[in-house]
């Protein structure tokens, strides 16, 4: 059994479409032109293929398909790159069919239909290649001329002379016997300096042992070689080149024809594109892709140095969003550049720094002895924010939150370490010192939050949001004057989640505006129905978030709710917090004025609990102060009583109504009633309840 038949008999396949054909070829191994590829090189072929490519078996084995191809196919595709792509496709388990222009070793064109079959050879991946000549009547197009033999020799000489690629021809002793103009221009030599010299003797190209051996072996075995190399000019400078060389036999004389082109511009472009792919253009720091490479390298070094500790630090800037919102992205970009410069100055030779995007930076720290050393370094990083960042005379103060994941303690996988550090960083935002190491509880909390966010995204479409109503009464006569609409989330299992636990996430998921609009419409519609049914002067009190108030379509949302419910504008009270007045004061003031002009009433909710700005109260169109529940709880204390009295007197001085929240006992109600005419809200009068329960409790009697 010869080598080819033995190889073919060892092939197997799991593809039914190939199995029958393979079995037939194993019985009749010479019926068609067949060869076997492993990687990109031929490892065996039948006699038909050897004849087809006009070569010898020793020259064919270990050669590649593109060694028997022109550099560029008629489609314009590079033979080397495209062949490798097709082989990779076959290695993925696909049968690949394509038309190809091959060249025999003697230079004959061979238009061929090629089919690549994925097979297994002794449990290793291989490819069985079938070559079918396109001209069925003649297996090789030896009779078809390319026209060159009919051209005058002087014309061929001129074409070579004026070619943009450098060309030189050497004899069997590798002495240069002919050069063209491009050769002289690119390398800086005259023809006289090159002729009858060996390329290596005049330093024409740099030779490395591996490169030279590959070059000579390829010429000896296959009669050709092509690849990237380094050439040397006459002034000693080097440049990258793409070179191809072919051995040609003419009348028993051996010649070597070498072509090459300067690819310096291409290499510079590749280098620039690589740099752009690896570096953050704003700060010059490594980007996310480069960071992963650095972290993978650090993990390899960590495995080789047991006993040492490494850390991934996620750093997020506190307060950066305000700079972007107030001063624009151009100023924000300058701040990021200053931050990255400080980080680099502080971390030289200590850590690798990268910018992932936005205001997030990541540091990789290696060769630490313990957690204390890592924590000390993180505190040093926080210290760079002690001094303000100054741009165009404006000083900006920033803080930072740092999350830390340790390797190998927490993980030895780059992606997981980045994820764990990110989780720790978000938890650090809520911690007092803004630095936290990752722990398993953070992961559980993160998973819980992720599930909550996922459920929340579907809650609105599943109609799981409900409104509860809490009564507001006149302290003097106990009459019902208003109903505050409070959002609740009733999950599919019946669990009721209060607004305080999920409203912050509505903003994160982008649902706050549509849900807020739904609350407005529902509350106005319900109160309008109660007013009609019970001939009541009931007011609808609806909480409005700062984000809603700043939304450009908020006035339209209010108009829509009033029109749809047919509720009079002065029967709608929009409750806003003090923080809403501080975020964008001018914009909020304008919105409140517009709401006031259409008759909607405005209340300040939880007054006294935050940084109350008394100077703003007189300039804003406010109708009601809702005094925070904390003051009602302190009515039993002399100081608490005085504070509450002062709040009520402030409202009276400004000629606006007041509502005291959190009234839970008769005694509290009596004390407040004695302080002045106003309104009360709290569990003493009623808990938040459904519309049906509210109706029964406050109107049926």
Task: Give a quick rundown of the structure.
This protein is α+β, with helices and mostly antiparallel strands and 701 residues long. It has 27 helices and 27 strands. An eight-stranded mixed β-barrel has the order 19-20-22-23-24-25-26-27, surrounded by five helices.
Describe the 3D structure.
With 701 residues, this protein is α+β, with helices and mostly antiparallel strands. 42% of the residues lie in helices and 26% in strands. The chain contains 27 helices and 27 strands. The strands form five sheets. An eight-stranded mixed barrel has the order 19-20-22-23-24-25-26-27, surrounded by five helices. Strand 9 and strand 10 (238-250) form a beta hairpin. The radius of gyration is 41 Å and the shape is elongated. The protein starts with a helix and ends with a helix. Residues 136-143 have low confidence and may be disordered. InterPro entries: Biofilm_reg_signaling, EAL_dom, EAL_sf, GGDEF_dom, Nucleotide_cyclase, PAS, PAS-like_dom_sf, Rev_trsase/Diguanyl_cyclase. Residues 308-440 form the GGDEF domain. Pfam families: EAL (PF00563), GGDEF (PF00990), PAS_9 (PF13426). It comes from Shewanella colwelliana (Alteromonas colwelliana). This is GGDEF domain-containing protein.
